[in-house]
Design brief:
By secondary structure, the chain is of the alpha/beta class. The chain folds into three domains: 198 residues, Rossmann fold; 72 residues, Helicase, Ruva Protein, domain 3 (Orthogonal Bundle), CATH 1.10.8; 71 residues, Arc Repressor Mutant, subunit A, CATH 1.10.10.10. The chain contains 15 helices and nine strands. The strands form three sheets. The chain has a five-stranded parallel sheet, with helices on both faces. A two-stranded antiparallel sheet has the order 3-4. Strands 8-9 form a two-stranded antiparallel ribbon. Helix 6 links the parallel strand 5 and strand 6. The longest helix has 24 residues. The chain is globular. The two termini are 42 Å apart. The mean pLDDT is 94. The protein binds adenosine-5'-diphosphate (ADP) and magnesium ion.
Length: 375
C-alpha cells in the first residue's frame, strides 16, 4: 500500500509544505540583511517547519552562511543553555570530529570534549566554574566563528519562551541582548509558541528584547493553498476528493495546518478511489478520538464558570463583558470573565487573532462543542 501523502507531528518541508511565500521571502531578506527576526504563533501553526523550509531554500541559493539550530524545549537551566549553544555552534561549523576537538581547544580552553560511544557524537563538558567565568565569551562564539570562517552565522532558537523558566532569566535576557546587538556577522532568529510569554519578552517596553528585531505573527494557512495541497495529495496517490468535501475538511479544522494534515490523513486512510460522506464522518470521529486524551485532564478540571465561559465563546458571543452575556451565561462578574479569559490565554486555549477571540485549537473546539453545547 502507498504511504499516506500527509504528515503531522514533525517538522515538515518540501512536498509536505505549502504556502508561506511571504514569510519565506521576508526571512530570506532578513538573513541577507542580518536583520534579527522573531516569529510568534500558537503551537502547531508551523513555525519550526517554516524556518526549516526557509533555510533549506535559502541555502540552495546563497553560500557563505552557517545556520545553527537550538531548541530550548528540553533545556532547563542557564548552564545547559550555554553548553548546548556552544556545542551546537561547534558541531555546525566543524566538518569532522577532529575539527570539533580542535575548535574546542582553541576557542573554549578549559573544556573537555567527550565522544558518545553509541552515536559517536561529540559534546562539550564544562568544568565547575567554566561557565561562570566565560559567559560573555560563549555568547560571543557566533561572532567569533563567523569572523574566523569568513562566513555569516545565523542562530535559530526554537521555543525561545522557555528561557523564562531559567532562574534569573531577566538577567540572562539583558545579557543576551547587550551582547548579541554587537554581532555584525551573526544574526538571530527567535521563535516560540506561548504567545503570552513571547509577547512579554518582545513587546514590553522595559523588556531587554524590546525592539530586538522584526516580529512575524504566523497565521493559519490560506484556504486556496490548503485546497490545492489536499487535492494534489489525493490525486497524486490515485484518489479523488470533491471540492465540497475538501472545503468542509478545511473549514472543520479552521485552516489549522497540523489538524488539516491529521484529518486529511484519516480520510485518505479509509477512503477508496473517491472520498465519500461516510469517510468524512468516520475520519472526523477518529480525529476527535485521537486528540481526546490530550484534553481530558483539562476538561475534567473545568469549573462551572469556565464551562459557561466556553459556552459563550462557542456561541460566538461578541460582548463577553456585557451585562447581558454575564447574566445570561451566569459568568459572575466582569472581573471573573477577565480572570477566565487570561487563564485560557495563558493555557494557550484561546487567542486573539485579527481582533477576534478564537480557539487556538480547532479540535478542542469540536470536543468542547460536543460536550457543552449539545445537552
Ligand atoms: N507550511 C505548511 N504546510 C503544510 N503543513 C504544515 C505547514 N506548516 C506546518 N504544517 C503542519 O503542522 C504541523 C506542525 O508544524 P510545526 O512546524 O511543528 O509547528 P510549530 O513549530 O508552530 O509548533 C506539521 O507537522 C505539519 O503537519
Ligand atoms: Mg515547533
Amino acid at each position: 500500500m502507498k504511504q499516506a501523502p500527509f504528515k503531522f507531528g514533525e517538522v515538515v518541508s518540501g512536498e509536505h509544505f505549502t504556502d508561506r511565500d511571504e514569510e519565506i521571502k521576508a526571512l530570506h531578506n532578513n538573513f541577507v540583511a542580518m536583520q534579527n527576526t522573531i516569529i510568534i504563533s500558537p503551537r502547531r501553526y508551523g513555525k519550526s517547519s517554516l524556518v526549516k523550509e526557509a533555510v533549506e531554500r535559502f541555502t540552495r541559493k546563497e553560500k557563505g552562511y552557517f545556520f545553527i539550530f537550538l531548541d530550548l524545549m528540553y533545556v532547563y537551566s542557564e548552564e545547559e543553555f550555554y553548553n548546548q549553544l556552544a556545542t551546537r555552534i561547534l558541531k555546525t561549523t566543524s566538518g569532522r570530529i577532529e575539527e570539533f576537538i580542535q575548535l574546542a581547544k582553541n576557542l573554549l580552553k578549559g573544556t573537555r570534549v567527550t565522544i558518545n560511544t553509541g552515536t559517536g557524537e561529540p559534546s562539550l563538558e564544562f568544568g565547575l566554574h567554566y561557565v561562570r567565568d566565560n559567559i560573555e565569551h560563549i555568547l560571543n562564539l557566533p561572532q567569533i566563528i563567523a569572523r574566523r570562517k569568513k562566513k555569516k552565522v545565523i542562530v535559530c532558537m526554537d521555543e525561545f519562551q522557555h528561557i523564562s523558566r531559567f532562574e534569573q532569566h531577566e538577567n540572562l535576557q539583558g545579557r543576551l541582548r547587550s551582547i548579541w546587538q554587537h554581532h555584525k556577522d551573526a544574526g538571530y532568529l527567535l521563535y516560540g509558541s506561548k504567545q503570552s510569554m513571547m509577547r512579554e519578552i518582545f513587546h514590553h517596553a522595559n523588556s531587554p528584547f524590546y525592539r530586538f528585531g522584526e516580529i512575524i505573527y504566523l497565521r493559519r494557512i490560506k484556504k486556496e493553498r490548503l485546497r490545492d495541497y489536499v487535492q494534489n495529495a489525493f490525486h497524486s496517490t490515485g484518489k479523488g476528493i470533491s471540492d465540497e468535501i475538501c472545503d468542509r475538511l478545511i473549514d472543520t479544522v479552521e485552516n489549522h495546518p497540523y489538524y488539516l494534515q491529521q484529518f486529511a490523513r484519516n480520510i485518505w486512510l479509509i477512503s477508496g478511489k473517491k472520498v465519500t460522506e461516510a469517510d468524512f464522518d468516520e475520519a472526523k470521529r477518529s480525529l476527535v478520538y485521537e486528540n481526546l486524551n490530550f484534553y481530558n485532564e483539562l476538561l475534567e478540571g473545568l469549573t462551572t464558570y469556565q464551562v459557561s465561559f466556553l459556552r459563550a465563546l462557542l456561541n460566538e458571543e461578541k460582548h463577553l463583558y456585557s451585562a447581558e452575556v454575564i447574566n445570561g451565561y451566569r459568568l459572575g462578574s466582569s472581573a471573573n470573565v477577565r480572570r477566565m479569559y487570561n487563564g485560557f490565554v495563558d493555557k494557550g486555549i484561546i487567542i486573539k487573532e485579527n481582533g477576534r477571540i478564537i480557539f487556538a485549537d480547532p479540535v478542542f473546539k469540536l470536543i468542547a462543542r460536543q460536550r457543552f453545547l449539545t445537552q
